[in-house]
Amino acid sequence: MNTLLTFSLSLIFSSSVWSGYLEYDQDVLIPEDWTHVGRVEPREELQLTFALKQQNTDLLEETLRLVSDPDSAQYGKHLTMEEVSALVRPSDLTQKVVRHWLQSHGITNCLTVHTQDFLQCTMTAEIAETLLSGSKFHRYTRHGQTIVRSSAPYSVPDEVHQHLDFVGGLHRLPPKRQDLTRGRMHKESKPGLHLGVTPAILRGHYNLTAADVGKAKNNSQAVAQFLEQYYSPADLAEFMSLYGRSFQHLSQVDRVVGTQGSGKAGLEASLDIEYIMSTGANIPTWFFTNPGRHESQEPFLQWMVLLSNMSDLPWVHTISYGDDEDSLSTAYMMRINTEFMKAGVRGISLLFASGDSGAGCKHLGGGQNSFRPSFPASSPYVTTVGGTSFKNPFKITYEVADYISGGGFSNVFKMPDYQVSAVEAYLKSAAATLPPQGYYNTSGRSYPDMAALSDNYWVVSNRVPIPWVSGTSASTPVVGGMVSLINDQRLLKGLPPLGFLNPRLYKLKGKALFDVTEGCHLSCLDEQVQGKGFCSAPSWDPVTGWGTPNYPELLAVLLAQ
Predict the structure, then answer these.
(1) Which residues does the annotation mark as catalytic?
(2) Model's pTM, two decimal places?
(3) What is the DSSP string of 433-470?
(4) Distance CA 540, CA 507 (A)
């Protein structure tokens, strides 16, 4: 059974009947690759997350700007979790109204977070459907994965509506895993030639030396997984023994947050942990994991809740996860953006993969198409990493855009001030070769911000070296590892960590980065664009951002206060 219900904005705004809907524009269509199993039993327990309305979000955004702008007197003066909590904590009225509403339905089994802006509550499906009018919970399966979601939109009473942003655990579905492999070969690389990217090739190409490893005691980095992906300690140790001989490194994860599942190691998780630990070598690394313990949880949201509730966190997080912007409600994305800002003001750098679908494509009907941005890649409050490949795939040459590299313009978020001049310069210089403007929003946040090699990696998974693994989920931990190394040197000098990178990155105007000026990424297969999205160009572009890191030069400019 497929849910057949989605809502057009024109219908919603034309009638007050939808006034109680928090997520009026949420796509609730269940994709065909999910199989309907049946209605959830009334007495079955669900866990839902209530995102309480926060205070002072405008002041939070201004604080983020000040602590992230190197020209500001507040640069680097990050806040503690306690200070963030005092700033955004929901009002007493909001907390009272929401808790009274829940308690009036007999819901008392709730956990909160330090910032008091999330409540995670357990209740029966019967009570949940009464609490959230219109909701109907069903079970769905895909490739052995099981979830519980509502097949219809939900509403809340008018007196509660103004105190909530959204309720998690009803709609958003795990995206499909990317196919990360493009072939099978294994031979040793010769000087100037290669048959797959390894840590030694990356470190040599981006000019890291054997001395470029972590030394600071108060430094750490992390990767996060949301699709029931697990890493194997044995795989990590094997990978380091094979590919980490030329530099000092750690072979064990410092901390696992969450519970690893009992299944086989995932290629995605193996790729992420192996490359952040070999690029950000010798830096303690955390692994955030979500085993899908409860079918009604939204794993990405669970991770965001964790960040709100942990005072001690790594300075750099890399995340290879994304969803189509148009599949998510605006209320959800705006709230997640606030969570990103909360991390940024604490000095945490969040790096997200730009995606592996180029500019993307949405079929509008009637033969019309548009490009399809990805979120969180399109968030103005994260650093988004695109992908490149060697010009000659078997030689260590200069880099060109990887055709899969996600990039484009948000349809939801306006272009942030820090990137306006860069994007306007691109749109002007590339005007003759740009896709038709009907495909994208030139006033939206544009991404990626920078890039790294994303093609033909070696990964050890389930004790087997696997070649030709590709995706921006490879380039992101590589960049993240280098950001961690720069943080390491800053911490040793008594400087604060870099935190939110973009304002400083765009002020560099490409300095200390290798500009990528060749190659285009893919998009819609139609007569107008014929599968081609945007193309890389001198300076910033929406395929590779400002380019790829030249580590020693990047270290030098980012060590300057």
Answers:
(1) 268, 272, 473
(2) 0.93
(3) GPPPGGGS-TTEEEE-SEEEE-SSEEEEETTEEEEEE-
(4) 12
